[in-house]
Amino acid sequence: MADRGEIARRVFATCRLVGIETVAVYCDADSDAPHVAEADYAVRLDGGTPRSSYLRGDLIITAAQRSGANAIHPGNGELAEDPDFAAAVADAGMIWVGAPPKTLGILRSKTETKALVAEARVPVLPSFTDPDEVPGFPVLIKPDNGAGGTGLRVVRDATTLIEAIASTRREVGSEVYCEPYVEDVRHIEVPILADEHGAVVPFGERECSIQRRYQKIVEETPSPAVDPGLREELCRAAIVAVRALGYVGAGAVEFLLDARGDFWFMELTPTLQADHAVTECVSGYDLVRLQLLVAEGGSLPMPGPPPIRGHAIEVRICAEDPAYAWLPATGTLHRFAVPDVAGRFRPLPAPGLRLDAGVENGSVIAAHQDSTLAKLVAWAPTRQEAARMLASALTRSQIHGVATNRDLLVRALRHHAFRTGDVDTGFLDRRPEVFAPLLSAVDAVRLSCLASALAGAAARRAEAAVLAAVPSGWRNVPSGSQTAVYDGPAGPVEVGYRMNRHGELAGWWVRTVDPEELDLAGLGQAPVVDDYPETVVVRAGDEQVVLDVNGIRLTFNVHRVGEVSYVDSPEGSVALRELSRFPMPAPEAVEGSLIAPLPGAVRRVLVVPGQRVRAGELLLTLEAMKLEHPVHAPSAGVVASLPVHPGTEVDTGELLAVLDPE
């Protein structure tokens, strides 16, 4: 297996089912990864960093030969689309579980691929490589050999076209082309399997329109916009495109679909795509098994497209913060628990939840890996049932230690526009309300803070060497309230409460604290106020707190890791870091310092010391989680210091540059 993480575990699951032994490869950073432990054999790759190991085809082939493997599955990463690697695998005498090298060579060029498909009379949008040939606007600039949405740029007038083309060319390091940009369009793909005997079988269609940075995060099948007649047209066009390109194996033919029902071929992705699980649910077929069958020279067992059974929706749980420009998140995943999962990595025997995850409790999420932690799939008789099931499971999941897009996914699934099937590639851009955290109601935040404070007190009482049976904070003579101060999502908050001699809650309050006036030693004197809901502590343990709020019971699960409490409730989840009452002073940064917002590697540096820059000018880029993140000048000025260069590894908070503002 020439890939890692979730896709490796997915392929291994089917291999075990059909009696095929498995070999994993790993770099030093992944020596304890789940995919390594689940393989029959594992081979360490030299090369140091993940990029210099997993993407080295020669190292992968050597590892396969050392282990005695007779086939290589490339997964769904860059090597799966590399014609040179595919040819090298065949030259080494091993089976290549993927598309033919010749076809992969064609697919490397988007313009060549579109030309061949257009000759076969499949609708395509026109391409322009000369700016003077562009007939109108808006247009989309695309790299000719791009993948994963990298380098895409929308241009809406002629005045910026030439500069935008040049900028995109510099960014991606390849030739680019333009095509008409279709507004309010859907992204529809037709998954296919083709064998070397001429059979091409489409598996319905998948709706992949909800995207961020041109990458999918919600997929479903069937599409709410596709009726049986349109489905037949799309599948017929996909078959024609596959045959025109000489494709063999598992893949997906991707189309743009407008509101009138017109569609255009976009590309053929030559991998077992990350959203194949929804297709497996509604078709009943194990696509990995069929992929292996085709690679061995076998014939597809079905005469045509399988019937669709119910509806399946998948979401990608990613380590990133949607509220901060999708900034990737790293750290230790202290807990990853999804309730009511019926199966993992294989087609489900009946409707339910399926989880394909590359992580477990304790997994370290690093900048070198993809941001996708897991794919959660709900399969139900109807679309509405699938959406409800999926949103409920996400809400009740415990994901601690790393910021994720979980809350955004829940709000998207519950949004009226999604429920009515009104989705397109601009879904997130036009609906800022889905970026709000689930735990946003004032009383819900207050109660979570109270639950955290009560759980912390219970933990301290359990560890007490003397008088452990006395209620926390109890005094013969009532004095100040019990207090705790947390650094919450919106800044510091203080919670205070009083207990009576019977261990009952006598009063409580929560207040926000101005960070500039934060004097922890002096807090705790705020009076108990009357506008808080009537609250009774039913049970207060160190891991679970049950409160009766105005006659309604709520359960709060509290998971403490060091100074951080992760509080999960029916209202949502929140991470609360308890602040020390006597914090150490932090060193002051040099004025004009630009620091790394995340760990990663410096990919490009576009300025030099002493250079004058404009406000908003791109200074450098960081590569993290397979995405490039720009660092712009916050104001006009002169680059005073530049301690990094391309290839420099940086951690969060490290100095990237110093800018003397004008």
UniProtKB/TrEMBL annotation:
Keywords linked to the UniProt accession: ATP-binding, Biotin, Ligase, Nucleotide-binding
Family annotation (SUPFAM superfamilies): Glutathione synthetase ATP-binding domain-like (SSF56059), PreATP-grasp domain (SSF52440), Rudiment single hybrid motif (SSF51246), Single hybrid motif (SSF51230)
Ranges for domain ATP-grasp: 109-296
Domain (Lipoyl-binding) ranges: 579-660
UniProt-listed Pfam families: Biotin_carb_C, Biotin_carb_N, Biotin_lipoyl, BT_MCC_alpha, CPSase_L_D2
Domain Biotin carboxylation: 1-433
SMART domains: Biotin_carb_C
Cofactor: biotin
Keyword Nucleotide-binding: yes
Gene3D superfamilies recorded: 2.40.50.100, ATP-grasp fold, B domain
Name by which UniProt lists this protein: Acetyl/propionyl-CoA carboxylase subuit alpha
Organism of this sequence: Paractinoplanes deccanensis
